[in-house]
């Protein structure tokens, strides 16, 4: 799959960083504003699709390999599972957040960035998982 | 004749059950899921998250979201497995 014309490449070069930034922002502020890990991950994935269409498969695979995306996907899914398993410690239950003492960690004041316990970690893991999943699905579709 | 008897028996039983169930319906205009009101009232102090949707999907309904993630993982795994064969065969044709 080859890239598109110079006009498309220039426009994509302008707007792709903004799209990536908005995606990361939506994913990281999932516990404060509308959005969340999945929504931010889908924005990142659509940015990858735009780059793939504009610059072609070879360029994108040179920057972000298929193997790398696949392992990133597993990393995001494993991060969600590990944060869920972390809830089992200190006598709490699966998918809970054991560090409920505000002096220790998170669960702080609402509206601050570091608040609401494990939601931030879940959002980061879900964003990585979804973005990498969409990336490798687009690779699969673009190759054939 | 026998089918008619069976049918009328079943119809009577189902009608009775529906009638009994109708008396236990929530009153008209009431919220069908009272737990929604609980989420709205308590999620800010329990989870300390402004976005109560995120509080519901990760904290109260965490297992549901975990299953959803597993579904996405399995779906992408299926896509990769399906397309790897095609990519390999195409590559072999190029080498030939």
Explain the overall architecture.
With 144 residues, chain A is mostly helical. Chain A has one domain (6-143). Helices cover 66% and strands 0% of the residues of chain A. Chain A has five helices and no strands. Chain A has helices spanning 6-28, 37-55, 57-63, 66-86, 119-143. In chain A, α2 crosses α3 (57-63), α2 (37-55) runs parallel beside α5 and α4 runs antiparallel to α5 (119-143). The radius of gyration of chain A is 18 Å and the shape is elongated. Helix content of chain B is 82%, strand content 0%. Chain B has helices at 2-23, 34-47, 52-60, 62-95. Chain B is built from four helices and no strands. The radius of gyration of chain B is 27 Å and the shape is flat. Chain B has 96 residues and is mainly α. Chain A binds chain B through residues 30-36, 70, 73, 77, 80-81, 84, 94-97, 107-111, 115-119, 122-123, 126, 129-130, 133, 136-137, 140-141, 143-144, and chain B through 44, 47-51, 53-55, 57-59, 62-63, 65-66, 69-70, 72-73, 76, 79-80, 82-84, 86-87, 90.
Helix-residue proportion of chain B: over 70%
Radius of gyration of chain A, in Å, reads: 18 Å
In whole angstroms, the N-to-C terminal distance of chain B is 75 Å
- N-to-C terminal Cα separation of chain A, in Å? 9 Å
Features:
heterodimer; A: 144 residues; mainly alpha; B: 96 residues; 4 helices
Summarize the structure.
The complex is a heterodimer of chains A (144) and B (96). Chain A is an all-alpha fold.
Secondary-structure blueprint:
The complex is a heterodimer of chains A (144) and B (96).
Chain A: H1 6-28, H2 37-55, H3 57-63, H4 66-86, H5 119-143
Helix pairs in contact in A: 1-2, 2-3, 2-5, 4-5
Chain B: H1 2-23, H2 34-47, H3 52-60, H4 62-95
């Amino acid at each position: 799959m080859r890239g598109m014309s110079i006009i498309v490449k220039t426009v994509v070069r302008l707007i792709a960083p903004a799209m990536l930034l908005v995606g990361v922002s939506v994913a990281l502020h999932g516990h404060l504003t509308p959005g969340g890990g999945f929504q931010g991950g889908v924005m990142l994935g659509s940015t990858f699709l735009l780059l793939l269409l504009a610059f072609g498969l070879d360029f994108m695979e040179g920057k972000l390999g298929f193997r790398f995306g696949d392992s990133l996907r597993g990393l995001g899914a494993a991060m969600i599972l590990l944060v869920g398993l972390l809830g089992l410690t200190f006598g709490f239950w699966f998918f809970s957040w054991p560090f409920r003492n505000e002096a220790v960690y998170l669960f702080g004041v609402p509206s601050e960035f570091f608040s609401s316990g494990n939601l931030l970690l879940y959002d980061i893991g879900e964003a990585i998982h979804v973005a990498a999943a969409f990336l490798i699905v687009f690779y699969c579709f673009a190759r054939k | 004749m026998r089918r008619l008897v069976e049918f009328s028996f079943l119809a009577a039983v189902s009608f009775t059950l529906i009638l009994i169930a109708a008396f236990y319906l929530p009153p008209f205009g009431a919220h069908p899921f009272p737990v929604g009101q609980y989420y709205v009232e308590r999620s800010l102090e329990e989870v300390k998250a402004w976005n109560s949707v995120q509080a519901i999907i990760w904290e109260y309904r965490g297992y549901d979201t975990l299953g959803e993630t597993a579904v996405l993982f399995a779906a992408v795994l299926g896509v990769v497995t399906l397309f790897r064969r095609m990519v390999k065969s195409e590559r072999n044709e190029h080498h030939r």
